[in-house]
Amino acid sequence: MKTALTLLTILLFSFADATGQTIPNAGFENWTTDIWQNDNPDNWDHSNLDIQPAKIFVSPGYQSNWALGAISFGGGMFAFAKCKFPVISHPASLNAFVKTEFSNIDSVNIEIFIYHNGLAVDSGKWINTNLSPIATWTPISISITQSTSSVDSVEIRINGGVQQGTILYVDELSYSLTNGINENNPNGNLSIFPNPFSKQTTLQSNNLFSNATLTIGNCFGHTVKQIKSISGQTITIQRDNLPSGLYFIRLTQDNKIITTNKLIITD
């Protein structure tokens, strides 16, 4: 039924890793309706069955059209969606936008597993409970353990709760890499404070810039701000009219990428 024009390619809007690797249906814009009238996210395995008291469903999205919802109708059953796909670089963190609703004591979670030769070698997990429900779309970042650099695939699992009325909403999945340009380039020694920020933030480097350019992109890969002719060691970024959310920056000089990083803007 509901299909989007394109899949999101959210991996540091093509800045962090020249090899490029994306999460299938990362923005949950593509859905197919089954014979039981369940809406199922394309490219994801899921728990939707005709009589199961927990469902994955399509929901209004954070910035795009649609997001994924996981709801329980009780009975001790939880809805899940999972996706496993090949990669060639080890992720450092998994990023997403989430909301939650609870009507009783319960919890929901998002997990990521890193595989090599069929074995899970690294992982990360985010948990939210009824003690701190998230009423509005909020960015999260899940740190991933770094036991090994060897990786050939990644699995993401979205798990709802078991109590009636528990809902987990997820949108705009992306991840940051450990082997991005900022780690391999000695000029990438850059600090950002504050981050998250609401009005402005400052980038500070140990190295001098000369006629550098800072480009800021959103989760859809679109450039939303650019600062040119930067010199010195400090760059101030004003929020201006940018909406809250996750952004990615690229700093270039002499047609070379100095560093990449991510920003979070909050209200």
H/E element sequence: EEEEEEEEEEEEHEEEEE
N-C termini distance: 34 Å
Beta-strand percentage range: over 45%
The CATH topology of the largest domain turns out to be Jelly Rolls
Task: Please give the order of strands in the largest beta sheet.
Answer: 3-6-11-8-9
Structural domains: how many: 2
What is Rg? 19 Å
Biggest sheet features = 5 strands, antiparallel
The chain-level structural class is mainly beta
Which regions have little confidence, pLDDT < 50, spanning 5+ residues?
Answer: 1-20, 179-188
* Integer average pLDDT: 83
Number of helices: 1
Could you please describe the fold and organization of this structure?
Mean pLDDT is 83; it is low at 1-20 and 179-188. With 267 residues, the protein is an all-beta fold. The chain contains one helix and 17 strands. The strands form four sheets. The protein has a five-stranded antiparallel beta sheet, with no helix packed on it. A five-stranded antiparallel beta sheet has the order 4-5-12-7-10, with no helix packed on it. The chain has one helix at residues 181-184; strands at residues 31-33, 39-41, 45-46, 54-60, 66-72, 80-86, 91-101, 107-116, 119-129, 138-143, 153-159, 167-177, 190-193, 200-217, 223-238, 245-253, 256-265. The protein has two domains: 12-177, Galactose-binding domain-like (Jelly Rolls, Sandwich), CATH 2.60.120; 181-265, Sandwich (Immunoglobulin-like), CATH 2.60.40.
